[in-house]
Specification:
Length: 56
């Protein structure tokens, strides 16, 4: 990676928002996978990841 590689402020904001939406969606899907349990396990997250990655 070049030391001179930079990202604009707007680009950083957009990337940050995209990542935030990704995490929120992952949590919602994992919660649904856990059948609305109070606890979401790593297994629940593993089950939703393939489809989530294809959707994003």
């Amino acid at each position: 990676m070049k030391e001179s590689t930079k990202i604009s402020r707007n680009g950083a904001i957009a990337a940050s928002e995209y990542l935030r939406l990704f995490v929120v969606e992952a949590l919602e899907r994992a919660h649904k996978q856990a059948e609305n349990s109070d606890v979401v396990t790593a297994r629940d997250i593993q089950k939703i990841l393939p489809e989530l990655l294809l959707d994003f």
